[in-house]
Amino acid sequence: MSNFLQRIITGAVFVGAILASIWWGPLSFQLLFFIAAILSLDEFYKIVGKGSCRPNRPYGLLAGAAAYLLLSFAAFDAGLKPYMVLLLPLLCIVFFAELYRKDEKPFTNIAYTLTGIFYTILPFALLSHVATHDQDYDRGLLAGYFLLLWSSDSFAYVFGNLFGKHRLFERISPKKSWEGSIGGGLSTLGVAHALSIFQPQLSWLDWQVIALLVILTGTLGDLSESMLKRSLQVKDSGSILPGHGGMLDRFDALFLSVPFVWAYLYCFS
């Protein structure tokens, strides 16, 4: 019961902070997710560092911070977009830095350093582009994405506990069930229908497609993070969120769903 209450309290504060930052304005949500992005990247480097590799944590965090700030603010200021080309040389410097570390597995270190930035920083930065897909800052769209993400996860948990019998991907996550995933998915489509009524800036079809993308890629993102932890024999990515684990544990579905949602909005909406 203590752990359950801890999860509820942490979850409520977590949800409230995200929604409040979105409603307050672009700068507040960008600042909150900048902090979340850096903490997530740092967690990634710490847990993979427990294995046989040594990612370049100081440079990775510096490059990740610069990448987030440039990508995120470029969504609101078109004048910054030409400077996005600087990201490529910025990331290439990690190859030069590895020359001076004298490690036995330099390219493994490089791969993990760059993977961490791609896995954690890019999705958080793309949230700014989701929020401005129609040029103006759209609080409702951004909040709607998070409501779909949380609905998928929460309803899957509820239906899984009530009816779960058939394992979805037992090798990676023994607790996830087909019943939970289907129940969570159908419930999330219902939430998308409600969003199409209260947030009509997107059509009913657009909200349904986004919901499907969140359901599928969010679930696979959750499984991918579980795969990472299993490969490193780690139970939780961290302990910064009492009752929930670390930042990677909390944002696992977001990391691999945001790129798909942004791509759909950019190409088809």
Question: Can you tell me about this structure?
Answer:
It is a single chain. With 269 residues, this protein is mostly helical. 74% of the residues lie in helices and 3% in strands. The chain has helices spanning 2-24, 26-48, 57-74, 87-98, 106-131, 139-163, 178-198, 204-232, 247-268, and strands at residues 167-169, 173-177. A hairpin with a 3-residue loop joins strand 1 (167-169) and strand 2 (173-177). The radius of gyration is 19 Å and the shape is globular.
Short précis:
The chain has 269 residues and is mainly alpha-helical. 74% of the residues lie in helices and 3% in strands.
Spans of at least 5 consecutive residues whose pLDDT stays below 50 are: none
| Shape label | globular
- Rounded to an integer in angstroms, the radius of gyration calculated over CA atoms is 19 Å
The major β-sheet equals: 2 strands, antiparallel
Mean model confidence by pLDDT: 92
> What's the order of the H and E elements?
HHHHHHEEHHH
Strand content: under 5%
Number of strands: 2
